[in-house]
Amino acid sequence: MSRIQVVSAACLLVLGAGTAAAQSKDLVIDVDVGEPIMIADQDGRAYIEIAITGFDEAGSRAPVNLAMVIDRSGSMRGDRLEKAKLAALMVVDRLGPEDTLSVVTFDSSVEILVPAAKVKDPEAIRRSIMAISDQGQTALHAGVNAGLGQVREFFDKSRINRLILLSDGQANVGPSSPTELAALGVEAGKLGIPVTTIGLGLGYNEDLLTQLALSSDGNHGFAETPDQLDDIFNHELGDLLSVVANDVIIEIELAPGIKPLRGLNRPISIKGQKAQLKLNQIYGKQTKNVIVEVAVPKGAAGKTKKLADVAVAYRNLATKKTAKVADTVAVRFEKSKAAVEKGANRRVMVGVTQALANENQKQAVALRDKGKADAAQAMLKQNAEYLRAKGKQYGSDKLETFAAEADKDAEAVAPAASGDWAKKRKGMTKSTHARDSAQSW
């Protein structure tokens, strides 16, 4: 394993395997291959993982630049809107005079309820929030777009820039497809503004909200009832106020002959021999990762083949400096399958297994949506067996837990299953998003 604890500096640091800096306010970056030993004389697949862990953020934090975008359409009437307003007040209470906040509401149209400004008069903001009333339909795309505009007013890479969206309904005014919302998420991600989406009730489009969150490197929450909003907002504020680094750019330059195939748990950009990914924010004491699958041509026993050069650049919000680190990953070829198994990086292979199984979960949902409940159930049962076998192989409680969840999901999609599929589907979609994005809640 190549573990790099980075010394933040406005320069390039090239650190080899096992190098570590002694400072405490640095990210730890692990660059590893799942199976650093591969079978000789045959083509294969390798999995490169870049895992980035935030340091303890205890002490001062960077100022926040936040937009809250709140659905006030007719379906939010009553307890939903009242609990949403109380959750928004929690945010106001946790921010300080150096933080910037805006509040955008939307129904059929959009209103900038509280224009972006520093939180100098929290009571005025609270009064504006409590005065929100329900009406109209759901112009979700326009609401998010307006919220992004508010964040851009005070955008600064030294701040924690973010948008939180709360909605209970389907987007029915303006652009409304998951693809269109994902495109908006990609735009937000490029700007460096993660979008956290919170779906309330059973009427919202979970595919739309998770696509928006994942494409911008944001979180996603599912509140079946308004009473669950407090807990979700507490989790979200915990992440928001613990950001220790942002603007993280991961660049992978594949060696000649090595073909980049895909990002297993996150969408990546592939151009020729280069793969790139942006992570907008790293939280204190939490790990985000990306796993890239590559095709490796056969090699002779005893020989080593370079896979890629990996570079990670980021901004440290504690030191207010930028850093860029680089490392190289390679594999060795052996004839013994036992050597391959013995040399496997268990941590990475657990991540690979989880990512592959997560894709199976998504496919099962798609089958169930098409009315193919038997096929969906069979896939989930097979997924549970796969996870259990790999959990035993790698000694992973995480995979065992996932296997138990897949068993329950298999029961839920069965043709004769009782209960609300809309509820179960939202829960499954939330879980797959959390695993892909390494969301802690």
Describe the structure.
The two termini are 27 Å apart. Helix content is 37%, strand content 31%. Strand 7 and strand 8 (110-118) form a beta hairpin. The protein has 441 residues and is α/β, with parallel strands linked by helices. It is globular and about 70 Å long. It folds into 3 domains: 2-58 and 248-336, Immunoglobulin-like (Sandwich), CATH 2.60.40.740; 64-241, von Willebrand factor, type A domain (Rossmann fold); 347-437. Strands 2, 4, 12, 14, 15, 17 and 18 form a 7-stranded mixed sheet that branches. The protein contains 11 helices and 18 strands. The model is unreliable at 5-23 (pLDDT under 50). Helix 1 runs antiparallel to helix 2 (122-130) and helix 1 (79-94) runs parallel beside helix 6. The chain has helices spanning 79-94, 122-130, 140-153, 178-191, 206-216, 229-240, 337-343, 346-369, 373-394, 397-412, 421-437, and strands at residues 2-5, 11-14, 28-33, 37-39, 44-53, 64-71, 100-106, 110-118, 160-167, 195-200, 220-223, 243-254, 259-263, 269-271, 274-283, 287-296, 304-316, 321-334.
Topology:
Layout: E1 2-5, E2 11-14, E3 28-33, E4 37-39, E5 44-53, E6 64-71, H1 79-94, E7 100-106, E8 110-118, H2 122-130, H3 140-153, E9 160-167, H4 178-191, E10 195-200, H5 206-216, E11 220-223, H6 229-240, E12 243-254, E13 259-263, E14 269-271, E15 274-283, E16 287-296, E17 304-316, E18 321-334, H7 337-343, H8 346-369, H9 373-394, H10 397-412, H11 421-437
Parallel strand pairs: 2-18, 4-18, 6-7, 6-9, 9-10, 10-11
Antiparallel strand pairs: 1-3, 3-5, 5-16, 7-8, 12-15, 12-17, 13-16, 14-15, 17-18
Helix pairs in contact: 1-2, 1-6, 3-4, 4-5, 5-11, 8-9, 8-10, 8-11, 9-10
